[in-house]
Amino acid sequence: MSAGAAQLLPLNIARHRGRDEQNNDVGAVADRFCQRYVKESASENERKKEATALVNEYFDIVTDFYEYGWGQSFHFATSYLGESFYESLARHEYFLVYQGQFKPTDKVLDVGCGIGGPARNVVRFSSCSVTGVNNNEYQIKRARRHDTYYGFCDKINYVKSDFCNLCFGDNEFDGAYAIEATCHSADKNECYSEVFRVIKPGACFVLYEWCLTSKYDPANEEHRRVRHGIEFGNGLPSLDSTQAVLDAMAAAGFIVEDSFDITERFTKNEPKSLQWYAPLQGRLFSLFNFKSTPMGRWVTSKLCQIMEFLRFAPNGTRKTAEILEEASVNLVKGGELGIFTPSFFVKARKPST
């Protein structure tokens, strides 16, 4: 199957890992990952200390599932009624480009680039050059393959680097963006400080951040359970509040010019719209995103079970599907309760002097 083709069948999720691949024993990795979240109170501090290993384990086993079920842009987006799933994802990305005011001559940093879906749309929209940062080798490999297929190799490059220790010089980039990625960092203060260091004075950093909203009540057992399910199912060291994100931005030296919850503002607009979790509920149906619906996820889980039993898929494939089902259920619940948003928008600027 070509890199650009839509994945109608779960062929890639049955991929047997090569001996030279990191975390090539899917079953062992899935078990080890689950142990980090074995109970609700389980070592948040330990997860932060081991964030790099935790996040790499997670994406080594789930990336093929993400790409099969969601496409090449690993993020959510609210949708206007009549807008397709993929149109909404692209619009969500274009909004960041507009806010960042990226120009064709700019060199822009993508903090947490996934397999390059957003970077390709950013280049399409603005014609800027993008450097994608990712600490997962397999995702970078997939991103480069897609770039070759679509013809973006001259405009996008990828660097394996930790968010909290970026391997670039000071004042190197004309701007930066992050789309639902820095939630995987061990320390947002360090992460934002590194972005501050590598962008030029006067440049913008625009991002969507996964956050707990002001409705989250740590004394509420259901809220805590949903939060834990989101963290476990999505490989997060810990979720932070919107205020904690703004505080970390200020501590890094940024001037926050704008911030708001996209999902909250979107639903107050006059045009009819669907919430960001609608695809997970099956409310934004099409042939291509059926896979992300409850029925589609059930079918995928059963296929994984059969393929694993027949040894067409590696041991641990079904468990990976179960981890992602835990994510889906709790993301929807967090959205319905209003205690979680995947799209807290921040526009921050590095002072000119």
UniProtKB/TrEMBL annotation:
It comes from the Eukaryota. CDD domains: AdoMet_MTases. Its EC number is 2.1.1.-. The keyword Phosphoprotein does not apply. Keywords: Methyltransferase, S-adenosyl-L-methionine, Transferase. PROSITE patterns: SAM_MT_ERG6_SMT. GO terms for biological process: methylation; sterol biosynthetic process. The keyword ATP-binding does not apply. Residues 58-351 form the SAM-dependent methyltransferase Erg6/SMT-type domain. One of its GO terms (molecular function) is sterol 24-C-methyltransferase activity. GO terms for cellular component: endoplasmic reticulum. InterPro entries: Erg6_SMT_methyltransf, Methyltransf_11, MeTrfase_SMT, SAM-dependent_MTases_sf, Sterol_MeTrfase_C. PANTHER family: HYPOTHETICAL LOC100005854, ZGC:194242. Belongs to the class I-like SAM-binding methyltransferase superfamily. Erg6/SMT family. This is Methyltransferase. It comes from Trypanosoma vivax (strain Y486). The lineage of its organism: Eukaryota, Discoba, Euglenozoa, Kinetoplastea, Metakinetoplastina.
